[in-house]
Amino acid sequence: MKRIRYVSQFSQEMSEEAIGDLATRASHRNSQLGITGFLLTSGRLFFQVLEGPDSQVDGLFEDIVADPRHKDVLLLDTELEITQRFFPSWSMRPFDLDHHADARLEPVRQMLVSILEKRQEIARLTRALEKAIWYEAAAGLAEGV
Ligand SMILES: Cc1cc2nc3c(=O)[nH]c(=O)nc-3n(C[C@H](O)[C@H](O)[C@H](O)COP(=O)(O)O)c2cc1C
Fold first, then answer.
1. Are 32 and 88 in contact (CB under 8 A)?
2. Ligand 1 close to Cβ of residue 70 (< 6 A)
3. Into how many domains does the chain fold?
4. pTM here?
5. Which domain holds residue 132?
């Protein structure tokens, strides 16, 4: 089995009802696939953990990445050869952080905001890196290297 985590952003505003509907359908399908985990929302961000048989998780993740309801899907990590599930009884438990009064969850919300900021920074740095490499290569070409 494997466990993956990713973050993504809503493509457009989603009502609580639409998110509830998504989670209910996901939960049904996950039960059939043997997948467990949770789906957390905060602001316009999703954070999801999926765990289950390798091929099922991979297949589902492909579907999820292609889903037009969200964008900028960033895979945070993949744990391979796990022997135990963290969330054995959740076929897909939704959490709405913004409507959760529990102050203990505030650090989780902060963490998500930080991940989003970091990913924007990574995108900026990657573009700068590519530009620098491109200039370097172009200069090399001009000098006949
Ligand atoms: C953020 C997000 C998380 C999703 N999570 C799941 C999931 O855990 N399981 C699932 O079957 N579909 C999930 N989906 C939906 C899939 O992308 C896809 O629409 C669905 O698997 C197709 O089945 P359906 O036609 O029954 O909706 C998710 C979609 C989004 C946008």
1. no
2. yes
3. 1
4. 0.87
5. 2-142
DSSP state of 83: -
Atom of ligand 1 nearest to the CA of 50: 8
145 residues of the chain, pLDDT tens digit each = 999 999 999 999 999 999 999 999 999 999 999 999 999 999 889 999 999 999 999 999 999 999 999 998 989 999 999 999 999 999 999 999 888 767 888 888 888 889 888 888 998 999 999 999 998 888 887 777 5
Distinct helix (H) and strand (E) counts, the chain: 3, 5
Ligand 1, pocket-test mutation among 60, 70, 75, 76, most atoms within 8 A of CB: 60
CATH number of 106's domain: 3.30.70.100
The strand pairing partners of 51, in sequence order, are 3, 36
